[in-house]
Design goal:
alpha/beta; 17 strands; 480 residues; 2 domains; binds flavin-adenine dinucleotide; four-stranded antiparallel sheet; seven-stranded mixed sheet; FAD/NAD(P)-binding domain; single chain; globular
Length: 480
């Protein structure tokens, strides 16, 4: 069935979004009340909706005055974050016939795949559906390297284009350059609206179902969900890492140091660096060949940086970029095959391994991994090992073995780990689902984020069609 006819059928079933409108205009809805006040500006003229406020007497806070916020979008399903999870959620929801609004703060789709310059998709081999489709497209549009790796080693620029093509074709609405900054519940604790900020100012968006694919769990936190961060009382998280694209190397001459030749390549690269007085903050430097003479490099760790502290992230970003350039300068000075090495680009967004793990109606635990959980409502089977990077520079090993003791067998991620426990109408997908610190270190990779997103998008659409809340939906393994 075409996407258009799918959507027509869906709209008939949901009375064209009337369910949303009814929820929002009911008298006990906390976000109702600004009446008919107009709150819009003409985007051509550059006008802004001005704010006003009052500084507290100690000048430590500002009380902003009430002001109307324009409602700029109404959709069946709104997805926050267009990383691997968000793309898959949006595609599956749109293909199930729902109207979909995708909101992303960066200037392209793909999250860590593109803005983060990742270049490698892990734990994708056993996945079907959208993951398989995207790998095929990355291969078709990619290089010989992409072909040899069945699309799992990809060029981020190819990924940007492929993702834009598939998302546009699926008929969803995409809003880039827009950050979600607030969420509004009704009195039944159902999420009914979100607020964003962008060059268009502060805006409100209504939907029947919401999916948090922000990686960091921003939407769930704004909605008032409980969550966990990192491990221990100080919420220690895995380090952040900035990635870079490089050029100036002949792939044949640097073959021994290329990751795809085996994990020993990382050891060799570290040895080469150390012999020449280079001490990377990440002790398993990873060089990948992408195509022609373009490579990617991960050689940086930033320890103890909170994903929710813009000052700390800024400092880590500046440190990381400086370190990458210093390391590349150092490698170039070795000469030989490295003599023309140069940085093409560093990632605009430093890679964040850990944000909030939002409390769901099921929590994936280390014990589930140890026993190889087989769950009747599994959305995907994760096979990636426990992978906790060093948590501080003192424990700077390739892999932190302290956390490996509980063991891991391939396990199912149950549907209810994708459903928020504290708020109705909200699902999560990707690294912000409900799990403990150890389980997260395994399921966080993008070969799992995609099928989680695919399941969340379909579940959101099905729950509207069946007029049930996502936690009431009977998810079957065969949906996955
Ligand atoms: C350095 C590093 C190396 C890694 N290596 C690998 C690897 O080799 N292979 C692999 O498969 N996985 C790897 N991972 C893990 C994996 O990349 C992540 O866990 C994965 O990105 C999860 O996907 P996601 O869609 O949940 O999150 P993300 O990719 O982080 O996507 C979240 C999206 O939401 C957007 N967003 C966030 N907040 C807001 C907001 N408030 N409003 C609007 N938009 C918002 C972001 O801009 C982003 O586009 C690595 C991670 C890091 C950090």
């Amino acid at each position: 069935m075409s996407n258009d006819s799918n959507r027509r059928r869906f709209m008939q079933l949901t009375a064209g979004g009337l369910v949303v409108s009814a929820a929002l205009t009911s008298p006990d809805t906390t976000c109702a009340g600004s009446g008919s006040v107009t709150a819009s500006v003409n985007p051509i003229t550059g006008d802004v909706l001005r704010t006003s406020g009052q500084l507290s007497s100690d000048a430590k806070s500002m009380i902003e005055s009430e002001r109307p916020i324009p409602v700029v979008g109404t959709s069946d399903i709104l997805i926050c974050g267009a990383g691997p999870a968000g793309i898959a959620a949006a595609l599956s929801a749109a293909r199930a016939g729902a109207s979909v609004q995708l909101i992303e703060v960066a200037g392209c789709l793909g999250g860590v795949w593109t803005v983060g310059l990742l270049t490698k998709i892990l734990d994708a081999g056993n996945k079907q559906g959208i993951m398989k489709e995207l790998l095929r497209k990355f291969t078709e549009h990619g290089s010989q390297v992409a072909m040899d790796s069945q699309g799992t080693v990809y060029d981020p620029e190819v990924a940007k284009l492929v993702l834009e093509e598939v998302c546009v074709e699926a008929g969803m609405k995409i809003r880039l350059h827009t950050r979600l900054v607030g969420a509004v519940l009704n009195k039944q604790k159902q999420l009914v609206a979100v607020l964003t900020e962008s060059k268009s100012g502060r805006e409100a968006w209504l939907a029947e179902r919401f999916i948090d694919c922000s990686g960091d769990g921003d939407l769930a936190a704004h909605a008032g969900c409980e969550f966990e961060v990192g491990t221990g009382s100080d919420c220690t998280c895995q380090p952040m890492s900035m990635l870079a694209l490089l050029t100036g190397l002949d792939p044949e001459l640097v073959r021994p140091w290329i990751r795809e030749t085996g994990s020993v390549a990382k050891k060799r690269l570290l040895e080469l660096m150390e012999i020449h007085g280079i001490n990377p903050s990440y002790r398993a430097p990873t060089l990948r060949h992408l195509h022609s003479n373009i490579f990617s490099l991960m050689t940086n760790h930033e320890y103890g940086v909170s994903a929710f502290d813009a000052n700390a992230i800024t400092a880590a970003t500046l440190r990381a970029r400086k370190e990458i350039h210093e390391i590349v300068d150092g490698l170039r000075s070795i000469g030989g095959p490295w003599k023309d090495l140069a940085v093409v680009a560093t990632a605009e967004q430093i890679g964040v391994r850990e944000g909030r793990r939002v409390r769901g109606r099921y929590t994936v635990t280390a014990s589930d991994l140890a026993h190889g959980l087989n769950h009747p409502q599994g959305v995907c089977r994760a096979t990636f090992p426990i992978d906790v990077h060093a948590l501080n520079s003192a424990g700077n090993k390739e892999i932190n073995r302290d956390f490996k003791t509980s063991g891991m067998k391939p396990y199912d991620i149950p549907y209810l780990a994708l459903v928020a426990a504290d708020v109705d109408g909200l699902l999560m997908a990707g690294r912000c689902i409900s799990g403990d610190f150890i389980a997260h270190s395994s399921y966080r990779v993008t070969g799992n984020a995609v099928p989680m997103g695919e399941a969340a998008g379909l579940a959101a659409a099905l729950s509207i069609k069946q007029r049930v809340m996502p936690h009431e939906l009977e998810w079957k393994k065969s949906n996955s």
